[in-house]
Amino acid sequence: MTDEKLTPRNVDFSEWYNQLVLKAELADYAPVRGCMVVRPYGWALWENIQAALDQRFKATGHVNAAFPLFIPMSFLEKEKAHVEGFSPELAIVTIGGGEKLEEPLVVRPTSETVIGSMYAKWIQSYRDLPVLINQWGNVVRWELRTKLFLRTLEFYWQEGHTAHTSEQEAREETMRMLGVYADFAINEGAVPVIQGVKSESEKFAGAVQSTSIEAMMGDTRALQAGTSHFLGQNFAKAFNIQYLDTNNTLQYVWTTSWGLSTRFIGAIIMTHGDDQGLVLPPRLAPIQVVVIPIYKNDSERSIVLPVVERIKAELAGVRLKVDDRTEVTPGFKFNDWEMRGVPLRIEVGPKDVEKGTVALVRRDKPGKEDKSLGSAHGRSFVPQVGLARTVDLLLSEIQSSLLRRATTFRDGNIQDPKDYTELKEMVGNGWVFSWWCGSQECEAKVKEDTKATSRCIPLEQPGGKRKCIVCGKEASEKVYIAKAY
Questions:
Q1: Which residue intervals of 60-166 are DSSP H helices?
Q2: What confidence category does residue 377 fall into, taking pLDDT thresholds of 50, 70 and 90?
Q3: pLDDT confidence of 86, banded at 50, 70, 90?
Q4: What are phi and psi for residue 376, nearest 5 degrees?
Q5: Res. 84 pLDDT band, cuts 50 70 90
C-alpha cells in the first residue's frame, strides 16, 4: 500500500471510492474487463456479512443448497418477461469440449429458472410445502459500465427461492425477507435503509411485485442494497410447479426470490468512509481492534511486548490484530489501519506500561478528543484493568455512533419540493420525497428531465391524498426519487 493520500470525497467522490477499494486492499481489477478479484481483507468482510445473514435465514426456517452455474437457454425463454429483462446482460456458452453445443448454455444471471425446474420435480403434494431454500454463489451479468463491488460482470451474492401453497403466504415471505435485510443493514452494517415497493418500471423481470431496501451514500446518491420479489405464479406456470392440495386438486405454487450481494460492501464504504479511508462498523469489521506496540529500543521492547501479549489474551473474544512490524514507523501503522477502517486502535508504550494505562483511538472520531475518557490529541487514556469491558462498550458505542451519523446525514438530505420545478432543482443535491400518481408517464418524465429514478414507494406512508408532483392529478402515495448507482 502506498502512503499517498486519497482524493478527497468532496473533490471527486467516484475517484475517492476507486482509490479506497484498492488502497485498503478490499479488491483489485481482474484480467477480464469488468471483473474483480476480492482480496482477503475484502473477503473477510464478505464472510462476516454472510455469517450475519445466514444466521438470520436459518432463524426464519431457510436451508442452504447449491444449484448449477449453467442454465439451458430454453429455460430462460420459458418466462417471457424474465428473458426480455435479462437478455442484454447474458453470457452464453456455445462451445464445450471443442464442439458446438446442441443447446446454448447461459452462465446464470440469477437462478429462478433452474431452481424452478427442480422444484417442479421435488414438489408433489401440499405436504412438500413450503420450500425455503437459499443459495450462496456467484452470478454473471454482462454490464457495460462497471465499478468494483457496485456493478461488475461477475459478483457474489445469496439468492433465496421459496415456494408456497397460497398467495398470502408468498407475499408474507416476500415482506419477511425484506425485513430481514433491513434488520441486517441497520443493525450490522449501520446503514440506515428505507423499505419500500419498486415501481412497475423498476421491478425485477418476471416479478409481480418487487420490494427493496434503499440506502443513501455519502454523495447523496441512492443505492439499492437488497431486493425481495413476489413472483406470483409466473415461474410456477412456466415450469409447471404443481402440487395436490388437501382436496386432492392440482394447484400451482406461489413463489418468491430475494437477494443481497457484494454490492453491500460498496454501501458500507460509501456510507461511512472518510478522507482517511474506510470506517467499518464493528459488527462486520474483519479486524475490530488493532494493537500497536510503541518502543524505541530493545529495552523498551522487552517492557512493552509482555503487556501487549497480556492484552491480546484478555481480548480473546474480539477480532484483534497485533501490528508488530519493525520495518515501518508507528505513524505509518496509524495511517495504514485508519485506511483499512479498523474501529478501535490500542497503543501501548513504555509510559503506558509504567502508568498501567493504554491509549485508545476511535476510527469514527479521527483526531477528536473523547472527554468522557480523559484524552489528548484524539487519544483516550484508560486503565489496563477492566480493558475488555472498556473495549466492548466502545465498540458498541462506535456501532451506534455510525448509525446515528448516517441516519442524520440521510434525513438531512431528503427534501419535499413544493412543485415540479423545485423537484428538478433539488434532485441533483439529494433525494426528494414527493406525491406521485403512479403513472409510468410521470415517472418517465422525471427520469428524462433529471436522470433520477424512483427508488421505492416506502411502506410507511403519510396517508391522505395530494396532487402528483409531476402532473397535478390526485395521488395517494409518496415516492423517493434520486440519482442512483
A1: 73-77, 80-86, 112-122
A2: low
A3: confident
A4: -150, 135
A5: confident
In this predicted model, what pLDDT tens digit does every residue of 326-372 receive, in sequence order?
999 999 999 999 999 999 999 999 999 999 999 999 999 865 444 44
- Using a cut of 0.90, tell me whether the model's pTM lies above it: yes
Q: Which domain holds residue 459?
A: 414-482
Q: Where are the alpha helices (DSSP H) in 227-322?
A: 234-238, 263-272, 298-314
- What is the H or E stretch that residue 294 is in? none
Closest Cα partner for 271 from 193, 213, 343, 191?
191
255 with 136, same domain: the answer is: yes
Q: Is residue 280 part of a domain?
A: no
- Mark whether 268 and 303 lie in a shared domain: no
By C-alpha distance, which of 290, 289, 299 is closest to 350?
A: 299
Distance (Å, whole) CA 406 – CA 391:
23
Q: How far apart are CA 94 and CA 107, in angstroms?
A: 11
Cα 44 from Cα 267, distance rounded (Å):
16
Q: Does residue 407 lie within any of the structural domains?
A: no
How, if at all, do strands 344-348 and 289-293 pair?
Answer: parallel
* Tens digit of each residue's pLDDT (9 = 90 or more) over 386-395: 999 999 999 9
For residue 366, give the nearest of 343, 347, 383 by alpha carbon.
343
Question: Does 338 share its domain with 461?
Answer: no
Q: Please check the confidence at residue 201 and state whether its pLDDT lies above 90.
A: yes
Q: What is the phi/psi pair of residue 266, to 5°?
A: -60, -35
Closest CA to 459 of 228, 116, 222, 167: 228
Are 73 and 155 in the same domain? yes
> For the chain, first and last CA: distance in Å?
27
What's the structural domain count of the chain? 3
The verdict on whether omega for the bond into residue 130 sits within 30 degrees of 0, i.e. cis, is: yes
Model pLDDT, residue 83: 73
Residue 420's CATH number: 3.30.110.30
The amino acid that residue 146 corresponds to is: T
Measure the CA–CA gap between 448 and 443, rounded to whole angstroms. Answer: 9
Between CA 452 and CA 449 the distance in angstroms is 8
Q: Of 60, 152, 159, which is closest to residue 116 (Cα–Cα)?
A: 159
